[in-house]
Amino acid sequence: MASLARVRIPRRLPLRSLARSIQTSADTTQLHSRPENPSEPFTVKLHEDTQVTKDELLEMYKQMQTMRRMEMAADALYKAKLIRGFCHLAIGQEAVSVGLEHGILPTDRVITAYRCHPFAVMRGGSIKGVIGELLGRQIGMSHGKGGSMHIFTPTFFGGNGIVGAQVPVGAGNCTFAMYGDGASNQGQVFEAFNMAKLWNLPCIFVCENNKYGMGTPAERSSANTEYFTRGDKIPGSRFVNGMDIIASKHAVEFARRWAVEEENGPLLLEFVTYRYGGHSMSDPGTTYRTREEVQRMRSTQDPIRGLAGILRSGLLDKEAKAEVDAAVEEAKTSPEPLLKDLWTDIYYKGTEPPFMRGREREEVHHY
Questions:
Q1: Are 22 and 219 a contacting pair, CB within 8 Å?
Q2: Is 213 exposed, middle or buried (0-12, 13-18, 19+ CB in 10 A)?
Q3: What gap in Å lies between CA 132 and CA 240, rounded to an integer?
Q4: What average pLDDT does range 168-194 have in this prediction?
Q5: Alpha-carbon distance values, 43 to 33, 34, 73, 251 (Å)
Q6: Which of 56, 224, 262, 268 is most buried per CB count within 10 Å?
Q7: β-strands 355-357, 267-272 pairing
Q8: What percent of the chain has pLDDT over 70?
Q9: In whole angstroms, what is the distance from residue 156 CA to residue 29 CA?
Q10: What's this model's pTM, rounded to 2 decimal places?
Q11: Confidence of residue 365 (pLDDT cuts 50, 70, 90)
Q12: Residue 21 burial (CB < 10 Å; 0-12/13-18/19+)?
């Protein structure tokens, strides 16, 4: 299976000397046998043996394929000028969101930055809800008023547009607080680390290191690119292979058990992953890296292709495409928000004030 970073999960790790380099290669998940019964557990080698079933792998494969199809559909809609504004896609990083979901409980809370569409779906949202939100339609998860970066579910706290600002919010409210390597040097991230350790909060801080903060390589922006070591008193889990779905799931299961079930306090995880597209739709993604690099990652490290080599299940690709195509068409037919909808969803239902001022003093809405 394609791989990107070595998975080692000791309980506490000493800080290493500062290094201006970044991990780019690692071991693979090795399949010991291929059982005939889809529900029969079988063993894979991931530095230590772990068991998965073919049914679970098939589910994870279809989910990754569907998430990629959804992001590809968003890409096409943006280029057709049906989606406007900011739009950050996670094509290539599917093993992180899907692996996370398979390693946590439905009641766990997750918060992330603006590359959030797959997390929103996996945490109880829907494809038509995400696409509808991007299109600014009533069927959207925020009723067409939030856009790409503001999508929520009861266990998913967004989608946040301010770099790094979701980390302190997650420290006090969520089990998993996600951020990127580009946000790792923000002051509020370190403040959140400090308070989480001071209060011994059961929070896992997860750095999705896709090697580029916008257009800047990690080694140019960070003196220490071993992000899992940057929690000071918080222990860190060594590079987790974010391009390997089994490695991602296994690491998340360990982190949750260590921080939440065993009540050892906060923990840092670092997923080393890669985005195939630019930082956002306005970024071609080729001015700071070569096309050959992107193609090499696609051909040798792709999480979907790696799992497909084990499963040999081409029919799931057609199912994923059909599901996304149907969701896109349904989202397109949904109407845009009405003018009166501008006054809704400002306050939690039942807590609205008697009235709300608009743009001018004379523009008043009474609830």
A1: yes
A2: buried
A3: 33
A4: 96
A5: 7, 9, 35, 16
A6: 268
A7: unpaired
A8: 85
A9: 29
A10: 0.86
A11: very high
A12: exposed
Task: Identify the pLDDT of residue 52.
Answer: 82
Strand partners, 272: 209, 241
Apex 13 CA angle, 245 and 199, nearest 5: 95
Closest of 85, 93, 84, 137 to residue 112, by C-alpha: 93
In three-state form (DSSP H/G/I as H, E/B as E, the rest C), the secondary structure along 200-224 is CCCCEEEEEECCEECCEEHHHHCCC
Q: Report d(CA 142, CA 334) in Å as an integer.
A: 13
CA pair distance 204, 11, nearest whole angstrom:
13
Contact 130, 67 (CB under 8 A): no
| Per-residue pLDDT tens digits for 326-358 | 999 999 999 999 999 989 999 988 899 999 999
How far is residue 21 CA from its own chain's centroid?
24
Report the helix count and the strand count for the chain, using DSSP H and E.
11, 12
**Average pLDDT score over the chain:** 88
- Tokens 């923000």 identify what position? 186
